[in-house]
């Protein structure tokens, strides 16, 4: 399978999990370790900040 098709497949899976609020499936699409940072005032929006792993990603989507 070409890389472009693999990417499309992952995006489709992501959107499907997001649409169906399947948090466990969505989180599994992420690498076990990540470096994800959303800048901003965390006192105003608790979902801002740094994420380092799948558990953090799950917490992020729970907050949203």
Which secondary structure elements does this structure contain, and how are they paired or packed?
Elements: H1 3-19, H2 23-28, E1 33-38, E2 49-53, H3 54-63
Notes on the structure:
This protein has 64 residues and is α+β, with helices and mostly antiparallel strands. The protein has one domain: Roll (Nuclear Transport Factor 2, Chain: A). It is built from three helices and two strands; from the N terminus they run H-H-E-E-H. The protein has a two-stranded antiparallel ribbon. The mean pLDDT is 95. InterPro entries: NTF2-like_dom_sf. This is Nuclear transport factor 2 family protein. It comes from Rapidithrix thailandica.
Features of the shown structure:
64 residues; alpha+beta; Nuclear Transport Factor 2, Chain: A; two-stranded antiparallel sheet; 3 helices; globular; NTF2-like_dom_sf; Nuclear transport factor 2 family protein
| Total DSSP helices | 3
- Total beta strands: 2
Apparent shape? globular
The arrangement of helices and strands along the chain is: HHEEH
- CATH second-level architecture: Roll
Helical content class:
40-55%
């Amino acid at each position: 399978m070409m890389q472009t098709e693999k990417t499309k497949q992952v995006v489709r899976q992501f959107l499907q999990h997001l649409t169906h609020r399947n948090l466990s499936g969505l989180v599994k699409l992420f690498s076990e370790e990540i470096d994800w940072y959303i800048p901003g005032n965390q006192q105003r929006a608790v979902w801002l900040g740094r994420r380092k792993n799948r558990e953090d990603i799950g917490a992020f989507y729970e907050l949203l």
